[in-house]
Amino acid sequence: MQVESEKARRQPVVVLGTIGWDAHIVGAWVLSRALENAGFKVIYLGSLVSVEEFIAAAKETGADAILISSLYGMARIDCAGIREKCYEAGLGHILLYIGGILITDPEEWEETKKIFEAEGFNRVYPPATKPATAIADLRRDLGLA
């Protein structure tokens, strides 16, 4: 009988919230419910969450991923240095996802995506991305698909 790995046996954990001074929580709340229905344990932080709070929650809960929502266009500022801060906290391996209206500059989406990938995000989603897309990506990235 083959023994399952610890990661395969336990429920995957994600930390989710809206970053910075952004109070738009409806999209993140909908995503949290969809993730729970898909079998993920969601640590939902709500709105007005700092990078440090995301990282502390991920470290405390042994999270597999941090999912950040931003709709007010300031995520470029709010997320500055996030991957380095994850490394400093011993979470260099953690998956980082972000989605929404991330910047206020009128540039093409692919340019916005490159900016956040350079900041260390594994996945970058445009506004109106369906929860099923992020869930499928999480399953794939965690080796659950």
Structure in words:
- The protein has 145 residues and is an alpha/beta fold.
- It has one domain (13-129): Rossmann fold, CATH 3.40.50.280.
- It contains seven helices and five strands, in the order αβαβαβααβαβα.
- Strands 2-1-3-4-5 form a five-stranded parallel β-sheet, with helices on both faces.
- The radius of gyration is 15 Å and the shape is globular.
- The two termini are 21 Å apart.
Judged by helices, strands and strand pairing, the structural class is: alpha/beta
Order of helices and strands: HEHEHEHHEHEH
Mean pLDDT: 92
Query: What level of helicity do the residues show?
Result: 40-55%
The count of DSSP E runs of length 2 or more, i.e. the number of strands, is 5
CATH architecture: 3-Layer(aba) Sandwich
Secondary structure tally, helices: 7
Shape: globular
Question: CATH superfamily, called what?
Answer: Cobalamin-binding domain
From the alpha carbons, calculate the radius of gyration and give it in angstroms.
15 Å
C-alpha end-to-end distance: 21 Å
Strand content: 15-25%
